[in-house]
Write a structure and sequence with these properties.
Layout (H helix, E strand, L loop, with lengths): L6 H8 L3 H8 L6 H14 L5 H4 L7 E6 L5 H16 L3 E6 L4 H13 L4 E5 L5 H8 L5 E4 L7 E5 L1 H13 L6 E6 L4 H16 L7 E5 L3 H14 L4 E4 L2 H13 L9 E5 L13 E5 L1 H16 L7 E4 L1 E4 L8
Length: 328
């Protein structure tokens, strides 16, 4: 096995000090004649500096990405899009998972700033005063994804309009007892915006008081909320804030001998691939998560290069009609 070339080796082969090689990679001053010596060795050895070694440079070509979870199809799409775009532009990514913990979210942003990344893409759970202060005082540009951020730059899903679309789609079936299972208001986009859109859509069809229950994003929460719902009422339509919550609803409804959609219509948000495997296939709303990642990364690079960017960009959605909602 060949020995891995280090900066010390580059220095020795170039006939210069290691500190000179370090200055070269970190954007410091090096004489043109010395640069040529170092570049010749780098090319001959096919050497690439370690990413973390480059984080001391003025321009590291490294972007930090903070996400609320790694256990999400939507987050996976966003990260994939970000990474593909940035790699094409010569950048690398450092991904930090906040595990739906606002404190860890703040710590992750602080850590990335301290690492001297060129910029941060922050897929937010919530925007608190602490977030606002940290972002406004950040030494590097920050683009917020998934939550509107009036004081800065954001790329968001059209949660309110998508929610209204779902509410109207269910409302057209004229359910006797509609229900919504979602997440709490700490997530403004989903817990407030998406939910209010659903309520607005249902109201268009005279449904003013649907049963509303909240939990977290997990499959287990979908099951628990549906069990609780069946104890409180006899729903014939359930709108779920995410596909994963809908998966939990499917499980519980089946256990109770209730048929989808004959007894209960079910609708979700997310457009997960697994939704097409359910029987019947889940009717769901799919956001363009790849566009969120692409637009976020493109916007951040424009900010890094001093180019003007829109304050807010909104990404659209698609209604995927499965067989889980009764026909009108």
């Amino acid at each position: 096995m060949s020995k891995k070339i280090t900066m010390a080796d580059i220095a020795e082969m170039s006939g210069v000090a290691k500190s000179t090689v370090s200055r070269y990679f970190n954007g410091g001053y090096v004489k043109d004649s010395t640069k040529k010596k170092i570049q010749a060795v780098i090319q001959a050895q096919n050497y690439e500096p370690n990413t973390f070694a480059r984080l001391n440079a003025k321009n590291s070509n490294v972007i930090g990405v903070v996400v609320p979870t790694l256990n999400s199809k939507v987050t996976s799409r966003v990260i994939t899009s970000i990474d593909r775009y940035l790699r094409g532009q010569g950048y690398e990514t450092i991904i930090k998972n906040s595990d739906h913990d606002p404190k860890l979210e703040l710590d992750n942003i602080k850590r990335l700033i301290s690492l001297n990344v060129d910029g941060i893409l922050f897929s937010a759970i919530n925007i608190t005063d602490e977030h606002r202060q940290l972002i406004s005082n950040s030494s590097v540009p920050v683009v917020v994804l998934a939550q509107e951020y009036d004081e800065g730059i954001s790329v968001v899903d059209d949660d309110r309009r998508a929610g209204r679309c779902a509410g109207e789609y269910i409302g057209k079936t004229h359910p006797q007892c509609a229900a919504y299972i979602g997440v709490d208001e700490s997530d403004i986009a989903v817990g407030i915006g998406r939910r209010q859109g659903v309520l607005d859509g249902l109201k268009e069809y005279g449904i003013d008081n649907p049963v509303i229950l909240t939990g977290d994003y997990s499959f287990e929460s979908g099951q628990a909320l549906t069990e609780k719902l069946l104890e409180l009422a006899k729903p014939d339509a359930i709108i779920c804030a995410t596909d994963r919550l809908a998966f939990g609803a499917y499980r519980v409804l089946e256990q109770h001998g209730l048929r989808i959609p004959e007894d209960v219509s079910v609708m979700g948000f997310g457009g997960y691939d697994e939704s097409a495997l359910l029987k019947p296939q889940l009717t769901t709303i799919k956001f363009d998560s790849y566009a969120v990642g692409y637009l976020g990364a493109e916007t951040l690079l424009k900010m890094i290069h001093g180019e003007p960017v829109p304050q807010k960009q909104t990404v659209g959605f698609t209604l995927i009609e499965g067989g889980s909602v009764k026909k009108c």
